[in-house]
Amino acid sequence: MRNKIQDLIIIGAGPIGLACGIEAQKNDLEHLIFDKGCLVNSLYRYPMNMTFFSTSDKLEIGGVPFISHNAKPTRAEALEYYRRVTSHWKLPLRLYEKITKVRREDDLFEVTTDKGNYQSKKIIIATGFYDFPYLLNVPGEQLPKVLHYYKEAHPFFGMNVVVVGAANSAVDVALELYRKGSKSVTMIIREKEIGQNVKYWSKPDIINRIKEGSIKAYFDSQIEEITADQVRFKTPKEIKTIDNDFVLAMTGYQPNFELLESLGVQFHMDEYRTPIYDSDSMRSTTEGVYLAGVVCGGLKTNKWFIENSRDHAPMIIEDIVGS
């Protein structure tokens, strides 16, 4: 037996997916919000001690105030806030339910998950980008010691750790590991310097730690092989091999292109594989499919944030109601 036909199915229960659900709720649209993980799964997977770059007011959705202890909220405060928003609006969530297939059948979308089948008139893709890490593509990457996500420093106490990358996540990880007692912290960085967009309070800190030698950093360098107890990498001057217990590959993440492609969404011919959409309505090139949030930037994952994509939700719902 099929479930009730929905006006709208939202794929992704992050802040922007929730914002879309709130707007749908305001307009009495029958809708469901799916996520293969927990509520705001991407935020949940952030490091436990992370502080947002944005102030709390810029993370607000649904008219619910976000009060934090400091101007820039923590991960824990954000998780509490979005739980409160979801409860306040009584949003219809389908968490831990993975969408396996979406296809168009006449005027409806047939949505298949690992738990059931659904039909909907419209689809919003608000999947973010945190589920698909960039791989190093080197021998040994499959070893259990190689991690693409970081939660806290405690497991790495007394360990020799390599951190790959030079953006915010890599810098935060390297600094916390150094301060929480890792035996050694070595950064291996493709670029010539620490990333330009690193948070202003972290950048001088990491630069000074590198200068004094507390954290070793190799720029213009790439890992060539990872073994059970070592890492071999290439620098501009030589091939080096160092003792190693863990590799934290903070190399960034990418959108779910497979889902977009399966729905026939088209892309610009640029280096970022930016999806094509109408900036006034957020309609994609596929009839009935809308894009919201970070996914709109393709591989340029630093273009859209919560604060500058919250407006996608009312734009989309206004277009759906109007049509």
Give a written overview of the molecule.
The protein is of the alpha/beta class. It folds into 2 domains: 197 residues, FAD/NAD(P)-binding domain (3-Layer(bba) Sandwich), CATH 3.50.50.60; 115 residues, FAD/NAD(P)-binding domain, CATH 3.50.50.60. It has 8 helices and 17 strands. Strands 1, 2, 3, 4, 5, 6 and 17 form a 7-stranded mixed β-sheet that branches. Strands 8-15-9-10-11 form a 5-stranded parallel β-sheet, with helices on one face. β5 and β6 form a beta hairpin. α1 packs parallel to α8. The longest helix has 15 residues. The radius of gyration is 21 Å and the shape is globular. The two termini are 29 Å apart.
Question: What are the key terms here?
Answer:
323 residues; 2 domains; FAD/NAD(P)-binding domain
